[in-house]
Design a protein that fits this description.
Length: 237
């Protein structure tokens, strides 16, 4: 009986050590790569994803595993999007019962060239608008954080959010309007785009705006905001 108690105590001690290590330092593994790849490929089966080993850290208060991998890449038709990191959250119960369940994905990009990003997007929707936009934009960069939630059946919810900023962007169209040094912060959620801290130069005149809000109201867009100039009065027109 004493040996049994001693054995159980040792096992319990090692479990405590392992859980403590998992909580404080975490471990690296590629065990969950395929499951995460399958979640990402729900967007597109032809999308190639390059994942490195992921790091698992236990949250003892919620009994969930926090998953993170860095330096990933998304590839499609010779277009490459570099990902700074991918974070996910997995129920510990689903791991123990071998019913792997990702509850959310958080994807953060590196600084991306907007023209290359548009080329990547056009592999999904090659619309005339995107083609024209790609021609209008001369240069510029984007960094974004994408947050995606999944329901109990593993389907993507429609409450995804995209936050980020545009920097050092130049646009030119109709050989008449030249936008330079366009910078702003943006936040997108279902049918609503919020843009703030806008600064840009139009034909060598510097403008700024605190905030613009654009809503999709069925067959029309509602736009609310203002544009200012230090030395000019700008009317609504």
């Amino acid at each position: 009986m004493k040996k049994l108690i001693k054995f159980i105590t040792i096992i319990f001690f090692f479990i405590i050590i392992f859980l403590s290590y998992l909580t404080i330092f975490g471990i690296k593994t590629d065990r969950f790569n395929n499951q995460i790849l399958n979640k990402i490929k729900k967007f597109d089966r032809n999308l190639e994803v390059e994942l490195k080993k992921i790091k698992l850290v236990l949250d003892p208060f919620t009994l969930k595993l926090k998953v993170k991998t860095v330096g990933s890449k998304l590839k499609k038709q010779n277009n490459i999007i570099e990902i700074a990191n991918i974070k996910s959250q997995i129920s510990l119960k689903s791991v123990i019962t071998n019913r792997f369940s990702v509850e959310k994905l958080e994807i953060s990009t590196n600084s991306l060239e907007i023209k290359k990003l548009l080329s990547f997007i056009r592999t999904y929707e090659n619309s005339p608008e995107l083609f024209i936009l790609e021609k209008i934009i001369k240069k510029g960069y984007l960094i974004a954080d994408i947050n995606i939630d999944f329901d109990q059946n593993g389907k993507i919810k429609d409450n995804f959010r995209i936050n980020g900023f545009i920097k050092d962007t130049e646009l030119s169209f109709l050989k008449k309007y030249n936008f330079q040094n366009l910078n702003f912060i943006f936040s997108y959620k279902k049918s609503e785009l919020s843009v703030s801290d806008i600064k840009f130069s139009l034909n060598n005149l510097n403008f700024l705006s605190e905030k613009f809000l654009i809503k999709n109201a069925g067959n029309k867009f509602l736009i609310k905001g203002n544009v200012n100039h230090k030395n000019l009065d700008i009317d609504e027109k």
